Amino acid sequence: MANSRFEYVKTFELDDRLLPRCWIVVRLDGKGFTKFTEAHKLQKPNDDRGLHLMNAAAKALMEEQPDIVLAYGESDEYSFALRKSTNLYSRRSSKITSVFVSMFTAAFVHQWPQYFPDEPLHYLPSFDARTVLYPTDEILRDYFAWRQADCHINNQYNTCFWALVHSGKTKAEAQAQLKGTLTEHKNELLHSKFGVNYAALPELYRKGSTLIRRHVLTEVKKMTDGRPVMRERPSIPILHEDIIKDGFWIDNPHILNS
Questions:
Q1: What does the DSSP 8-state code read for residue 170?
Q2: Nearest of 190, 207, 214 to residue 73 by alpha carbon
């Protein structure tokens, strides 16, 4: 209907192009996932199947969107950082947000049977999404530090909460016992009452999951004498390590230099 008399309706569309030379971060969050996890019998406080499924969906999105340089996920949320110079979808916020959340959700649903072969989907999951701009490398680092700190705080609380509930406390009693407690109090509770060393729990739970891009040597074939032929191939490893301290960023300078 190009050049029709109805084309004036396009003037009602708002220009939502994001500012240039800023980091674009898209954060996805499960909508109503407390109910969803209960309906699908996910283990508390952590279900490895669900966490690995979230990672698989994030990796699928990164494979489709090469401008994503870093992703970080914990629980039912994931954050994706696009390189500063990206012109993906002309930097239109609504386009980026809608494409990312729909692709992630589609990958989550598509791969569900691989991680939950004995638990079919009873209803469709959904995620909400937002796009935020961060003007400097320092603020981008602080954003991801905030999300990893949040991972630790939430996981430590949930580990204590569900240990109390599984021991016979009601949810209200567990909440009351944990109200106002500090990190050291929670660690002592886990150790003295349940024999759990919080620092020994899997890093997947305590530090979340970080996805980056790397090139790794991969065997592509063998010579006639049996020697392997190696070539660099792009890879998206899933890491569970500290991204708050400088070490991670020093070891992966290509993220901020992308």
A1: -
A2: 207
